[in-house]
Amino acid sequence: MKLVAQTAPYIRKNVSVKRMMLDVIIALMPVTLFAMIQNGWASIYVILISLVTMVSVELLSHMFIKWPKDMKFKELFTKDGFSKVKSTYTINNFTAPIVSALIYALILPAYCAPYVVFVGAAFGIFIGKMVFGGLGSNIFNPAAVGRIFVGICFGGQIGEAYQKQQAFIDAAAGGTPLAPVKGSLGATGGYDLLDLFLGNVPGCMGEVSKICIIIGAIYLFARHSADLRAALGFLLSFGVVMLVASISYLGVDANANVGEIWLYQMLSGGVLFGAAFMITDPVTSPVSKYGRVLYAAIAGCITALIRVCGAFPEGVAFSILIANMLVAPIDYFMRGKPNTYTWKQCLGLGLGIALVCVIVSASVMGGWF
């Protein structure tokens, strides 16, 4: 008898990587089409540059990572050499960077300078993915890596892109609906909640139309190509913290509308987009059930902390990258434990969220004293 070492779980769903990637691409189509219709060619060239860059960089990087042993470079230009290199590629080497490219483009504003889109796409796919070994080996979300990189290095250019986009949308001034209310939780920035839901506001291309995001998310979850636990963990943790922050604002303005403030925060920025298409990434998520809920809840709490206490109006991409760094410790903590939920785990998660609520409440009300 021969013993073969394998990794649990041993019973798996009939869901291949190929099918999951194709499902994500299909689910992204509503927001992608909406962005094209709303912004025209200004969004199309951003998406195209992102697609070409990420697919090309991944293919070139993969070629050298999987380069056949003892094969010289000049052999690549022969029929046999080309066949050897070609045999290392699969459909997943095309669909995976397409998914990352679409997500990266959709978390950028239209009218971004082409070089900004290119630099972020190349940096995200190479530094965020290929240096770790490629498909299935990366610990960071490539789209979030690229977006944060250009946001830090080319903040001025991205701000100009927001301003150009503003001229084509009938809405109040400001880069995103979160920008004019930063520092004043009770403000609404002149945006109507219905406009926030339908997408008649400025912002990153994929985050504005909540109805398109919901349509794509329903498809993903119906096809079991995304983990509903992670999405709900992110939304519920963020929603609870922001609800406490909204209630705390009554200490600043007794006439504040708590429900309106809370809905404004839930419908603004990239919370729904991040919950549907980024926090559910299986490669950069923990493997256990509770681990994924904990991971998503951490990202949701950090997003709320950045919005209320931080210097940036939005924090979804930042929070996802920070949570990505905690995936390995979470998996280590859950190693050897039952793949289920216990009351101790739920109590610990609840206490953690409660602590964040206390911090946010104190920040909104102006301090501890």
What report would you give on this structure?
With 369 residues, the chain is mostly helical. Helix content is 62%, strand content 0%. The chain is built from 16 helices and no strands. The protein has helices spanning 17-39, 41-65, 79-86, 92-106, 114-127, 142-153, 155-166, 193-198, 210-222, 228-248, 258-267, 271-277, 289-309, 316-325, 327-334, 343-364. Residues 5-11 and 169-174 have low confidence and may be disordered.
**N-to-C terminal Cα separation, in Å?**
71 Å
Which oligomeric form is depicted? single chain
- Extract low-pLDDT stretches: 5-11, 169-174
Q: SSE string, helix = H, strand = E?
A: HHHHHHHHHHHHHHHH
- Describe the biggest sheet? none
List keywords for this structure.
62% helix, mainly alpha, 16 helices, 369 residues
Which SSEs are present, and which pair or pack?
Elements: H1 17-39, H2 41-65, H3 79-86, H4 92-106, H5 114-127, H6 142-153, H7 155-166, H8 193-198, H9 210-222, H10 228-248, H11 258-267, H12 271-277, H13 289-309, H14 316-325, H15 327-334, H16 343-364
What is the compact description of this entry?
By secondary structure, this protein is mostly helical.
